[in-house]
Amino acid sequence: MLFWAGLILIALGGCALFIDRALAHFIYDHVNARTHKFVDSITHYAKAGHWLGAAILALAGAAIARHFGARGADLPQLINYPLAFIAMLTLGSAVLHVIKLVLGRRRPRDDMEMGLYGFQPFAFNLEYNSFPSGHSLTISCVAVIFTCVWPGWWPLFFAIAFVLASTRALLTAHFLSDILIGAGIGILAGREVLLLGFPGYAPGWF
Question: Quick one: CATH architecture of 2-197?
Answer without folding.
Answer: Up-down Bundle (1.20)
